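Long-time lurker. I teach an intro course on protein structure, and each term I like to show students one example going from raw sequence to a predicted 3D structure in token notation. This year I'd like something fresh instead of my usual example. Would anyone be willing to generate the tokens for the chain below so I can use it in lecture? Attribution to the forum is fine with me.
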Amino acid sequence: MHSSSVLFAAFLSTVCAYDTQLAFNAGSSTSVEVENRTLDDIYQAALAEGDTITLWHGGDEKNQQDALKKAFETRFPKLTLNVTVDVSKYHDGKIDQQLATGDLYVDSIILQTLHDYPRWDEEGALLRYKPLGFDKIYDAFKDVNGAYYGIGVFSWSNVWNTKRIQAEDAPNEFTDYLKPAFKDKLVLTYPNDDDAVLFAFDLIMQQYGIKWFDALLKQNPCWVRGTGTPPALIGSSNNTEYAATFTAAVGLMPSAPLNITFPREGRFVTWDQNAAIFKDAKHKEGAKLLHSFMLSEDYQKATGTWSVRKDVASPAGYPDIMDMPGTDPTKFKEFMIDRARVERLRFFFEDRLGTPQGLSPLIDDL
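-- Reply from a regular --
Happy to contribute to a lecture. Here you go:
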């Protein structure tokens, strides 16, 4: 983009963005809409808008939300869910550009960049809407005015291939990765390429110190882009080189030959992935339907992981997310809001590891 275009976009942003605090809930731009219709009623309203809802979802593999698309379109066959998966830190910049130029075409966003949502709300960009099931969401996972809210719980776990790591060497704590059994067998996402991975390293090193990281480097891990890449390499039958990671997730009930554990002594990352609808979205009813559907009991149970709803039980053998040992799902949001801290940590790891190498995980065919 030419410098003049950048300056113009910045000018528009300052003109169009405003703090809504002193509006004191006056007018349609700041009032809160509480959903009381059924899903079928919202479906009919969505059809009157058109047949396509545009969702931008954070992720690092193009097919990561295929299951969501299939579930939604199966339940609402006359609608199309147009899902674009990309890294959240790229999605949010493109959203800012659309808002700045008045060319918004995204209806719904579900991103890892939790620090963006309060800012967008303060700028008056978000629809304050409480979907069906909003009252069942944990208080810590939702904005009181419904501008944004957790739609699903994400986490990192210890993941390993049981055919390549013997049972006695299976990782439980982060110190286990320093064992000889993991030499040349680790696949890890660059912490300076993903803020949730960055937070994982921050938690680990706050507990075990820089000596742990120095010892980890001696294990010669393979550093990759994207959190979908480690399990893809570990689970691949085409190589026998890589065996374990702690910068990825494969669900709470993984399929063989992969297995998982969560540390008991160490601290691991969990967070609520936030969702929001833009106030000026072209298909607000469709976005309302999507969010109410995703917060339904049936959909939350079908995810196979922890729910953002207090009344949906965790998969067998797991406590509720708020009672899970070794994690606090509210801390990642605090971490993300402190951008100065995030930047210092990124530069620390960039100095040690270099800039992330390789193609975007969305196009690397791994």
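Some talking points for your students: The longest strand covers residues 270-277. The first helix runs from residue 3 to 16.
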